[in-house]
Every structure is written in structure tokens, then in C-alpha cells.
Amino acid sequence: IQALDKVPAETIRFEVPIGKRIRYKTLVFTVKACETTNPDAPLPQAAAYLVVESQRLALPGHNPPPSKQVNKGWMYATAPGLHPFEHPVYDAWLLGCRGNPAPSPEPPPSSAPAKPAG
Q: What are the tens digits of pLDDT across the range 6-53?
């Protein structure tokens, strides 16, 4: 995910593992699912189902204040305007999904005769 704080025009890129809550300033991001089409496709597509909450930082010695959900739904890396994150101070958009892709199958042995070294 890439996020922008509009006030100082500061951007940051960060990873949000599926099911984990990751804080960026007063926002808390939770990715529920992240899917990618075949990376070998002409235009690989990535989509993630995100829940974004707003939660002020806790004062020392106090419990954190309750969070408020500000956005939830699918976000698409190639079409960030399709389901945009709208917030007066921050912007955020999906860059892609990471994972352990399945290993590529070994290419079949060539049936062409080998050329002699020369």
C-alpha cells in the first residue's frame, strides 16, 4: 500500500500482511484478502479487500480511543479510482499483492537435436 499525508505531502509505502493491523499515523489498515491474476498475463491485476479505521494515538498511560471504520471494500491496483479511499487528510492506494507464487513448471526437454560444440 502507498499512503499520502496531504498536509506535509509525505508518502510512504508499506506492507500489510493479511489479517494483521498496520498503523500509519491515525489510520489502521487491515487486509482481509489479496488476489493477483497470473503474473505472466499481459496485464497482471491485483485486488485487495481492505478495512481502514481511523484511531487517534493513545495518550501515555491511557487506553487507545475507540476506532471508527472509514473505508472498506475492494481496492484495485490498476484502477485506484474504481473504489477510492476518501479521507480529508490521507490518500491510500494498493500497489500490488505479495506472496509465494507457485514455482514455474520446468520447460519440457527440447526434441531438437543438440548442436555439436565447435
A: 999 999 999 999 999 999 999 999 999 999 987 677 777 899 999 999
- Give me 117's grid cell: 560444440
Strand 90-93 versus strand 2-5 pairing type: antiparallel
Distances (CA, A) of 111 to 35, 106, 117: 37, 15, 18
Read off the pLDDT band of 99 (50, 70, 90). Answer: low
Which residues partner with 24 through β-bridges? 27
- Closest C-alpha among 27, 11, 20 to residue 95: 11
Q: Are 29 and 21 a contacting pair, CB within 8 Å? A: yes
